[in-house]
Sequence to fold (240 residues):
Amino acid sequence: MTGLDVLAVMAHPDDAELLCGGALVKSADSGERTGILDLTAGELGSRGSRELRRREAERAAEVLGLSIRREAGLPDGNIRNTGESRLKVAHLIRELRPRVVVTHWLEGRHPDHREAAQLVYDAAFLAGLRNLEAPGEPFRPHKVVHALAFREGVPDPTFVVDISDSFERKLEALDCYQSQFEGVTAAGEVFPGEDRPFPEQVRAHAARDGARIRAAYGEPFWTRETMRTSTLGALQVSTF
Fold:
């Protein structure tokens, strides 16, 4: 199997669409192979059933143009960075072979998000160990990236992806999750703002992050590593 260029590994169905859906669309439209690994089925969600959320996720995958979508089968509300969980995720990373992995920020209101961030980072490292007792050939992603969208009290993003041309597709993917977002003004870490409908809340955040790079809409990300540019002359985003 050909490896993926980008794999979003998130705690629940709809997390990837919300945090990096625009970037996934942009990558897919550019010819990159993209995927989502949902760590859980979101079965503890206050709205919708496991089966309904799975159908919604399948429809969203089509909108995003994903090459693959998988589920790890970890328990919703009880993701833990244990040896067993690391082996399960490492096995899937070996199978899907992504060059870049995107996951949650290191902190979050939902405990699953906090646990997932470190679990994914650790599993990505372990997947490259030859003697790891997990199925598949050793493989380690080139980079692990953390999504910062909708987060407060985080560092400035390392980079922002311009999703101006893919933002409406991001909203279309989110609209597949009627059980979660229909008629709401807030969800997860998207807090209400003057009772704006949920899609408008998402639009407001994306516009703010887009303004950082002088674009209509953007999605922010953070890496442990300092990014590099080929030359000073290649630098983008104007100072004035």
Notes: Residues 6-234 form a domain with the Rossmann fold fold (CATH 3.40.50.10320). DSSP finds seven helices and seven strands in the chain. The mean pLDDT is 93.
